[in-house]
Design brief:
The complex is a heterodimer of chains A (115) and B (574). With 115 residues, chain A is an alpha+beta fold. In chain A, 37% of the residues lie in helices and 30% in strands. The N terminus and C terminus of chain A are likely disordered. In chain B, the strands form three sheets. Chain B has a six-stranded parallel β-sheet with strand order 2-1-3-4-6-5, sandwiched between helices. By secondary structure, chain B is an alpha/beta fold. Classes of the chains: A alpha+beta (115), B alpha/beta (574). At the A-B interface, helix 1 and helix 2 of A face helix 5 and strand 5 of B. The complex binds thiamine diphosphate and magnesium ion.
């Protein structure tokens, strides 16, 4: 049975620095889904030195630390930063994931349910 | 002119992969042609034609697990590649270094639903440690080299390389490196080692919980030295079996769902669980919140994502056991006799548990009692024998009633529990270790899943022995139906099994059937002494079940059945 109590579903922001390649996003998405999270939003930018920065906003009941660590085991992933504190999330998202406005974060649980 | 396929063979050869398993087909034909020419080109690679790609995948697994080397399997695109996937998924869950090479339709046809085009690369994302698709001719060589590195580095696992046919056929061009990042290996620090030591020394009831990671890191010797310094009780997982010498007096056996009663109770009683290369699998822990509930946990594993995944631990160390175990062993090599003495009452408590939960083989029935037969086999076979298993009741009986002095001698599908594992894995093990006995202990259900590999055994004259435990049932499922589904035996009857001895004889493999207890001793002796492939078909009573059993969702101390033959709750349980 699915958990309909979205108000309790934690949200987190993941920022990854990865080696660029054509399969990268698929690999990251597969791991996020497998570890029990849903992607609410994402973006990626190619950096200069053959690297790509990828940002994800995810929600899920599973353990965030396990998600972070399993993303880190992917060969292409060089660094992975995780933020799940509300204030920091709001700030980060203003800077990076501009398609999600800060009111989303302030009302994160409810918004996530409707996303 | 040297073509891509030649470069593939050259690179495999340089990697030491001189024995490979596979099955040809359209998109991998250039590689098969290069294999054919490998002898004249002075890069000889012996190819073992299996009779199904799953068989080839599992043969590669058997080759790898019985030696610690990398197993290699090859298949064509589409159905050939999808047939490999089960073996690769099995290798992923059991952390086995395998490199799989699959053909793909030529690049211009990719994405057009071409004949035998399946997105195996997509499939492999969920079933392999890593995967490559060689779209750039210049990256062929380094892709193969990197695949071998990744398969073995850190926590081992399968790596798939999907190679379009035109990449195999085109002339070799100048090769360029892939420039993949190499992960930094975390060394163990002195602080961590001292913390670990002090946790152990301050515990009153510490116990070692040993997983498959120990053998994979090739540190069984150091583990046994550490045990000998501390004389502490120890248990293993299914994959950890063999890492601890069977002669170690404080070895309590396997823990978990079908573990030894003493092992489970000792873990429930301990105040420090020292988990080395183990991952708190649900078949081990039973109800997680009740598992070793009184214990602090010290967990060392090469895979950081395993730490604090299911159990919050007091001290988590991400480090390869090849570094951690020697360091820990050294710390305890000069252990104070007072320190060692402080655990005497704990040792006594464990010894008493062991005494109370000894296996018993005095089954009153006239039929053959499989645990007793397996114990007999274990006693008479050479200690270097490799046992491979299928999946089911017989697999658990092997784990319970046979002893092993190396994890490389007990090849069982742990994480995936794949029926049909035993026979092809035995093929791979026999190729890798031709001078050792290799015995596949099969179930009557499981053997039919890869029975075609009798053809491989015949063709290559591999002296694989088969011990078939036939209860005319999908026994393990039947056991659960009896216990948890009100005895509704849905689709688990196999009473119309073929005559397995006749079947083997069609492949020129001799055999014998036994069904009486009085026949066991002689038959096992002949079986072990026979020179060459042989099938011993053992008919057992379908009523026999595996005990003890921790019911799903229950705590390990609430296991049912105490493991003795004459005290099995065959009725009214659950
Ligand atoms: C490929 C696969 N399909 C289904 C299962 C589920 N399963 C687990 S044990 C078992 C019965 C195995 O029967 P058999 O090989 O005769 O062994 P027994 O339990 O009778 O000893 C089944 C169907 C499985 N583990 N693997
Ligand atoms: Mg059976």
């Amino acid at each position: 049975m699915s958990n309909n109590n979205h108000n309790e579903t934690p949200i987190a922001h993941l920022s990854l620095i990865c080696t660029s390649n054509s399969i990268l996003l698929e690999r990251l998405l597969q791991t996020i889904r497998y570890r029990g999270f849903q992607v609410l939003n994402m973006n990626s930018n190619d950096l200069e030195n053959g690297e790509t920065e990828v940002n994800f906003l995810v929600k899920g009941q599973a353990k965030l630390t396990t998600l972070k660590k399993s993303l880190e085991t992917i060969i292409d992933v060089q660094q992975c930063y995780l933020t799940d504190e509300k204030e920091k999330l709001a700030k980060l998202l203003e800077m990076g994931l501009s398609s999600i406005n800060s009111s989303f974060i302030n009302n994160a649980p409810q918004q996530a349910a409707n996303y | 002119m040297k073509i891509g396929a030649d470069l593939i063979i050259d690179t495999l050869y340089k990697q030491g992969a001189t024995e490979v398993f596979g099955y040809p087909g359209g998109t991998i034909m250039p590689v098969y042609d290069a294999l054919f020419r490998s002898y004249e080109r002075n890069v000889p690679i012996k190819h073992y034609l299996c009779r199904h790609e799953q068989g080839a995948g599992f043969a590669a697994v058997g080759f790898a697990r019985s030696t610690g080397k990398t197993g290699v399997c090859i298949a064509t695109s589409g159905p050939g590649a999808t047939n490999l996937i089960t073996a690769l998924a099995d290798a992923k869950l059991d952390s086995v270094p395998v490199v799989a090479i699959t053909g793909q339709v030529p690049r211009p046809l990719m994405g057009t639903n071409a004949f035998q085009e399946v997105d195996v690369f997509g499939l492999s994302l969920a079933s392999c440690k890593h995967s490559f698709q060689v779209m750039d001719q210049s990256e062929l060589e380094d892709t193969i080299n990197q695949a071998f590195r990744i398969a073995n580095e850190g926590r081992p696992g399968p790596v798939l390389i999907d190679i379009p046919k035109d990449v195999q056929m085109n002339a070799v061009i100048k090769q360029t490196p892939l420039n993949l990042p190499t992960p930094q290996v975390q060394p163990i620090t002195l602080d961590q080692i001292e913390l670990a030591k002090s946790l152990i020394l301050n515990a009153k009831k510490p116990i070692f919980y040993i997983g498959g990671g120990v053998d994979m890191a090739k540190v069984s010797r150091q583990l046994n030295a550490l045990l000998s310094h501390t004389q502490l009780p120890a248990v293993t997982t299914l994959k950890g079996i063999g890492a601890i010498k069977s002669s170690y007096p404080h070895f309590m056996g396997m823990l978990g769902m079908h573990g030894n009663g003493a092992a489970n109770l000792a873990v429930q009683e301990c105040d420090l669980l020292i988990a080395l290369g183990a991952r708190f699998d649900d078949r081990v822990t039973g109800k997680l919140s009740t598992f070793a509930a009184k214990a602090k946990v010290l967990h060392i594993d090469v895979d950081n994502s395993e730490l604090n995944k299911l159990r919050q631990v007091e001290l988590a160390i991400t480090c390869g056991l090849e570094a951690a175990l020697p360091a820990l062993e050294q710390q305890f090599s000069l252990i104070d006799s007072n320190d060692q003495q402080q655990w005497q009452s704990w040792r006594d408590e464990c010894a008493e548990l062991k005494q109370q939960h000894q296996w018993q083989y005095d089954c009153p029935a006239q039929g053959i009692y499989a645990p007793a037969l397996l114990n007999e086999l274990s006693n008479v076979m050479p200690s270097s024998t490799v046992i491979t298993c299928d999946v089911g009741q017989h697999q658990m009986w092997v784990a319970q009633h046979m002893t092993f002095d190396s994890s490389k001698n007990h090849l069982s599908s742990g994480g995936a529990g794949t029926m049909g594992f035993g026979l092809p894995v035995a093929v791979g093990a026999k190729v890798a270790r031709p001078n050792d006995q290799v015995i596949a202990v099969c179930g009557d259900g499981s053997i039919m899943m890869n029975i075609q590999e009798l053809g491989t055994i015949k063709r290559f004259n591999l002296g694989v022995k088969i011990l078939l435990i036939d209860n005319a049932k999908l026994g393990m499922v039947k056991q659960w139906q009896e216990l948890f589904f009100d005895k509704r035996l849905s689709e688990t009857d196999l009473s119309d099994n073929p005559d397995f001895v006749k079947l083997a004889s069609a492949f020129d493999i001799p055999g014998k059937m036994i069904c009486k207890k009085s026949e066991v001793e002689q038959a096992i002796k002949e079986f072990v002494e026979f020179d060459g492939a042989f099938i011993l078909h053992v008919k057992i009573d379908a009523q026999d079940n595996v005990w003890p059993l921790v019911p799903p969702g229950a705590a390990n101390q609430d296991m049912i059945g105490n493991g003795s033959a004459d005290n099995q709750p065959t009725e009214n349980v659950g």
